[in-house]
Amino acid sequence: MPLSLWMSLAAICAMGAMSPGPSLAMVLRHTLGGGRAPGVIAGVSHAFGVGFYALLTVWGLGAVIERHPALFQVITWGGAAYLAWLGIKALRAGRGGALHAQAAQTSMGHAARDGLMVALANPKLILFFVALLSQFVTPDMGAGQRAIIVLTAMLIDGGWYILVALGLSHSRVLPWLQARAHWINRITGVLLLGIAIRVVLG
């Protein structure tokens, strides 16, 4: 995979991971309630859930492209519409998207379970990955390139939440995120709309 293409993939994965939502609130809750270790465990287990969906999407998209190009086009347009809807929703969130996570008593096991289940119980991840990965998957793509896509999604997702957990142990990250959540929503909304347009045009 060319470096420029991988950087585009990494940027979109980072944007998805950093956008405020239930996953970020879950990591914040476990970090505030149990400290650094449960927060890190929650972030890592969430990344495995993301990797599972990315794996299904990459191999599934490859089969659809190869056998049903017309169906793949429909999936691509549907994914673009979903990305556009997410973008509009993020733009409309404004300050309402600010995070207010409360601490809760937790343990390593609870953090691992919640991290995985928040990812797996979110079917919107499949739609997000279909829309996202349709730009990067090709019929002749080898297993190595597919693995790079899956690992990129996992490492960026897990890396972001680990950074959040580590930063929260110094107690200044949450107020920073809360104060800037509306800007994160706006930037995310614009980028998602841009990606949707690019998918439709390209």
UniProtKB/TrEMBL annotation:
Keywords linked to the UniProt accession: Cell membrane, Membrane, Signal, Transmembrane, Transmembrane helix
Topological relation to the membrane, as annotated: Multi-pass membrane protein
Chief location of this protein within or outside the cell: membrane
Subcellular location: Cell membrane
InterPro entries given in the database record: LeuE-type (IPR001123)
GO terms assigned for molecular function: amino acid transmembrane transporter activity
Endpoints of the signal sequence: 1-25
GO cellular component: plasma membrane
Coiled coil: none
Domain of life: Bacteria
Entry keyword Transmembrane: yes
Keyword Transmembrane helix: yes
Listed transmembrane segments: 41-63, 70-88, 116-136, 148-171, 183-201
Protein name: LysE family transporter
Lineage: Bacteria, Pseudomonadati, Pseudomonadota, Gammaproteobacteria, Oceanospirillales
